[in-house]
Amino acid sequence: MPRLNDRWALVTGAGRGFGRSIAVGLAREGCNVAVHYNTSALGAEAVMEEISAEGREAFAVQADVTRWEEIRRLADEVFAKVPRLDILVNNVGDVAPEQMSWRDVTEDLIDRVLAVDVKGTMLMTHEVGSRMLEQGGGTIVNVCSNVVVTGSPRAPQYAASKYGVLGLTKSYAGAFAPRVRVNALGPGFIETESTVNREDWRSGRREDVLAKTPLGRIPGPDELVGVVVFLASDESSHMTGNFVLCDGGFSMVGA
Ligand SMILES: NC(=O)c1ccc[n+]([C@@H]2O[C@H](COP(=O)([O-])OP(=O)(O)OC[C@H]3O[C@@H](n4cnc5c(N)ncnc54)[C@H](OP(=O)(O)O)[C@@H]3O)[C@@H](O)[C@H]2O)c1
């Protein structure tokens, strides 16, 4: 029996990468999906086809999540189209993939990463969560990272931004309780297209991460979808403001 039968989910950044796997994975659990994208319009179309092939409904919505008025418009558009929005997955994030060292940081990179990860996730949670409260309930899953445990010597602003995501997860979990639950998951490295194309990934970082990962592999995005489904479903009904780490043991002390 699919766990999310006939529910509606909004997945941000669903035109590629982890978001794409999450959107299709939720559809496999019975969900209809609003597929958000910013620039990946073709990817969003492909995802909608995959969702239709699962026998579920889908439509696409475009927005730049660094702009509050675009998020308001996105939220209005989605709530006008669905009978009720049960699930929001805030997957959009910016890992500053072009940055190889803390020495390469620029003011633009700091502003961009904080605007996408912190401001974007906060305003999506704010606008969609307040509409969920009005409808009587819902659940929000924020994609964080294991950098909240390990830090990121490569891109400190990325680690700071994911700490920000954790902070706003806990804050809105308290503000929206008990009707809307807000939780976060913290993946370690996932081999999405943007990870495998990173310069450091192709020149030794992959082997280094693999050697430090007790489970001995680096997952593709599909392998982590189950944690999102769990946090989005009633199986996690006693969880809010909580954080689930899923990094193959990478951040275990002594690993
Ligand atoms: N990959 C990893 O190893 C890893 C590990 C831990 C956590 N994470 C987190 O997992 C999430 C997804 O990672 P990923 O590897 O799939 O990332 P990705 O391939 O780099 O994709 C980034 C996504 O964010 C969207 N996006 C970026 N800026 C945006 C903006 N201003 N407005 C709206 N959307 C915007 C992109 O949309 P468009 O393409 O439509 O522009 C895209 O869907 C992120 O939150 C990341 O921090 C990833």
Architecture overview:
By secondary structure, the chain is α/β, with parallel strands linked by helices. The protein has a single domain (8-246), classed as Rossmann fold (3-Layer(aba) Sandwich), CATH 3.40.50.720. It contains nine helices and seven strands. It has helices at 17-28, 41-53, 68-81, 107-135, 147-150, 156-176, 193-196, 205-211, 225-232; strands at residues 8-11, 32-37, 58-62, 87-90, 138-143, 180-187, 243-246. A seven-stranded parallel beta sheet has the order 3-2-1-4-5-6-7, sandwiched between helices. Helix 1 (17-28) links the parallel strand 1 (8-11) and strand 2 (32-37). The radius of gyration is 17 Å and the shape is globular. The chain starts with 7 loop residues before the first strand and ends in a 9-residue tail after the last strand. It binds NADP nicotinamide-adenine-dinucleotide phosphate. NADP nicotinamide-adenine-dinucleotide phosphate binds next to helix 1 and helix 7.
List the helices and strands and how they pair.
Elements: E1 8-11, H1 17-28, E2 32-37, H2 41-53, E3 58-62, H3 68-81, E4 87-90, H4 107-135, E5 138-143, H5 147-150, H6 156-176, E6 180-187, H7 193-196, H8 205-211, H9 225-232, E7 243-246
Parallel strand pairs: 1-2, 1-4, 2-3, 4-5, 5-6, 6-7
The structure holds NADP nicotinamide-adenine-dinucleotide phosphate.
